[in-house]
Amino acid sequence: MKLKAYAKINLALDVLSKREDGYHEIRTIMQTVDLYDIINIEKIEEDSIIVTTSSENIPTDNKNHAYIAASLLKERFGVKQGVKIHIEKNIPVSAGLAGGSTDAAAVLKGLNEIFELNLSQQQLMEIGREIGADVPFCLVGGTALCEGIGEKVLKLKSAPQMNILIAKPEVYVSTQAVYEALDISKVKKRPNIEAMISAIEEGNVKEIAKNLCNVLEAVTVNQYPVINRVKDIMRNNNALGTVMTGSGPAVFGIFGNKYDALKAAERLKVFIKEIILTTTCEGSGVLEF
After folding, report:
1. Average of per-residue pLDDT values in the chain
2. Domain check: are 109 and 167 in the same one?
3. Torsion from C-alpha of 74, 78, 81, 83, nearest 10 degrees
4. CB 253 within 8 A of CB 242
5. Residue 288 maps to a domain
6. Nearest 5°: phi and psi at 180?
7. Residue 227 sits in which domain range?
């Protein structure tokens, strides 16, 4: 079985409070973009999980989200057959684009079919939550309001198709460290989630771009000023709006046309290796070829 596992961006991300379990309550609008890893899944007779990948930057053992997804399903439902998973990595690693989470979502969806488990999407989402907060959204895809730690997913009207330029600086960002460094009482600018939802429903790209906001950005920018440099270059090349996605360090800009996006990409190539011009897309976060 061959699956496309799509990346996501956060159009708006607010952090409301810290929970007793150490996680944070958030409200975020996630959006699928047309950038995907390719996941090949093959059933094997041996009772084992074998993960291989095209990237040297991700683990292939039980630290890999796809491995964890397979292990959870096998253990929970008593599956004695094994699985071979190959990940063709196209989504930048540790970027805030849910690359690991979407791979896990693809494995959950694929193994549900291969092993004929007949689990509903809701059941898969509940299992996905145990792997990572973004996995439930990655199973749903499209445009959605996500709450709780991100696992409560409310599907919204699809956002209009937009030109998205993604740039990932060569720095490592720890999601946990970013959340721990965030002082919620000192957040100066919060996203207007309702205004963003209205802009999406109206299909108003300029208003969507105007309302881009991520409260985690201030924390990550403080550690890595290169993020502001990326944003400045995008803005100086006619980006309608630009913001960091997730805990970073990837930044994306919304552009009114591909020409301006390509101009920005040329300027960014001087100091950024991973640059991707793509679009937003509708539908599931995981699709079969």
Report:
1. 96
2. no
3. 0
4. yes
5. no
6. -65, -30
7. 163-279
- pLDDT in the model for residue 22: 81
Non-local (6+) Cβ contacts of 268 within 8 A are 167, 230, 233, 234, 275
Tokens of 2: 């061959």
Say if CB 95 and CB 250 are below 8 A apart.
Answer: yes
Q: What are the tokens at 130?
A: 């145990």
Beta pairing, strands 2-18 & 213-214: parallel
pLDDT of 154-193, one tens digit each?
Answer: 999 999 999 999 999 999 999 989 999 999 988 989 999 9
| pTM confidence score | 0.97
Q: Which amino acid is at 135?
A: V
137 and 176 inside one domain: no
Please give the annotated binding residues for ATP, written as ranges. Answer: 92-102
Q: Tell me whether residue 8 is one of the annotated catalytic residues.
A: yes
The position carrying tokens 């053992």 is: 61
Write the pLDDT tens digit of every residue in 27-66. 999 999 999 999 999 999 999 999 999 999 999 999 999 9
Among candidate residues 14, 37, 103, 134, the one labeled active-site is 134
Residue owning tokens 């059933």: 43
**Rounded CA gap, 118 and 74, in Å?**
14
Q: How many structural domains are present in the chain?
A: 2
Query: How far from the centroid of its chain's Cα atoms is residue 157's Cα?
Result: 19
Q: Could you give the CA distance from residue 178 to residue 27 in angstroms, rounded to a whole number?
A: 16
Q: Report the distance separating Cα 258 and Cα 55, nearest Å.
A: 29
pLDDT band at residue 131, thresholds of 50, 70 and 90? very high
Give yes or no for a contact between 42 and 70, defined as CB atoms under 8 angstroms apart.
Answer: no
C-beta of residue 89 within 8 angstroms of C-beta of residue 99:
yes
